[in-house]
Amino acid sequence: MNKDFISNSSPSNAALPKSSTMSDEGGMNRRTMVRSGAYSYRPPSPPRIHIPVRKAEDIFLWPSYNLVDSSKLTLEEYNIITGNRLQKSTDRSVRWRYEMRRESQLILDYLFLGPTSTIRDHDFLKREAITMLVVVRDSRAPMNLASVNTASETFNISYCYVDVDTNHLVPAFNQIVNVINSHLLTAHNNTGGATQGKVLVTCTTGNMLSPPLVAAYVMFMFGQEMLDAINFVSVQRFCANFDDEAKGALLTWQELNKASVAVARRRRLERENEENGHAPALASAEGTPNTKRGLDDMMDGVEGDLGSNGDHDRGGYAPFLDVDQ
């Protein structure tokens, strides 16, 4: 039986090939081995998500109820919130000035995005008829702001704090959708449709915590994918920052939305068939066959893989090389 003697190395010199010696119990037939590649001493990082630079042109969002999870919003509620109005971006990237980061920008015709300092601008709140303040804050340091209480008492404005964990943003995405939509529906119902609510979403700088939540709201309400929603927000508030954690969370949110929309569409189709006295649908809402597999289909071919150690996928890669050969 051979004994392996492998030298230790620190992360600082992990990229250098380290040698080791192998010998039998009698000390004969000593061979020198070197690493085939660098060692890594940390968990693998997720791949970076690149956001391509978009041309300086307007972006349009068309309201479409077919792109929304119907189990969370009825058609009537969706029409009240969006008004079936076309949303058009205003490209501020070319004419952006540094001072504009201290202001709030209109993202949707009923939603502003900016820093919390704009809450103290009472002329702005009055001019834009803001009806709700949403303050996004780090869950590790939740602080109530006196400016929020003052604005709420002065203009009878509703407000809500959304605490976010930067490592787990998806729950905050659900919360921001519910908070904004509930307020808009309440404002409509309380005034008999005479008043449309307007929401100001803020964080300390208006650049880090709140932009991903606004992008998530755009994705949910208008069926947009991550790249399109980020571009829609970024061209209007050019200083908005989306780090890798935010982009990864938005990508997860995108797939969750697609799945929930597909499930809701399938259930709606089955319900309509039952109401019309038709047999249960064997095809999905997209018109494709039912692709559910049975247990036998799923286990087909698995028996042959149970004894495999997966080495056939390595492509002939060996972690060490014998330099004496």
TrEMBL record:
<dbReference type="InterPro" id="IPR052449">
    <property type="entry name" value="STYX-Interacting_Phosphatase"/>
</dbReference>
<dbReference type="InterPro" id="IPR029021">
    <property type="entry name" value="Prot-tyrosine_phosphatase-like"/>
</dbReference>
<feature type="region of interest" description="Disordered">
    <location>
        <begin position="1"/>
        <end position="29"/>
    </location>
</feature>
<dbReference type="InterPro" id="IPR020422">
    <property type="entry name" value="TYR_PHOSPHATASE_DUAL_dom"/>
</dbReference>
<dbReference type="GO" id="GO:1990444">
    <property type="term" value="F:F-box domain binding"/>
</dbReference>
<dbReference type="GO" id="GO:0005737">
    <property type="term" value="C:cytoplasm"/>
</dbReference>
<dbReference type="GO" id="GO:0005654">
    <property type="term" value="C:nucleoplasm"/>
</dbReference>
<protein>
    <recommendedName>
        <fullName>Tyrosine-protein phosphatase domain-containing protein</fullName>
    </recommendedName>
</protein>
<feature type="domain" description="Tyrosine-protein phosphatase">
    <location>
        <begin position="103"/>
        <end position="256"/>
    </location>
</feature>
<dbReference type="GO" id="GO:0070372">
    <property type="term" value="P:regulation of ERK1 and ERK2 cascade"/>
</dbReference>
<dbReference type="GO" id="GO:0062026">
    <property type="term" value="P:negative regulation of SCF-dependent proteasomal ubiquitin-dependent catabolic process"/>
</dbReference>
<feature type="compositionally biased region" description="Polar residues">
    <location>
        <begin position="1"/>
        <end position="23"/>
    </location>
</feature>
<feature type="region of interest" description="Disordered">
    <location>
        <begin position="269"/>
        <end position="325"/>
    </location>
</feature>
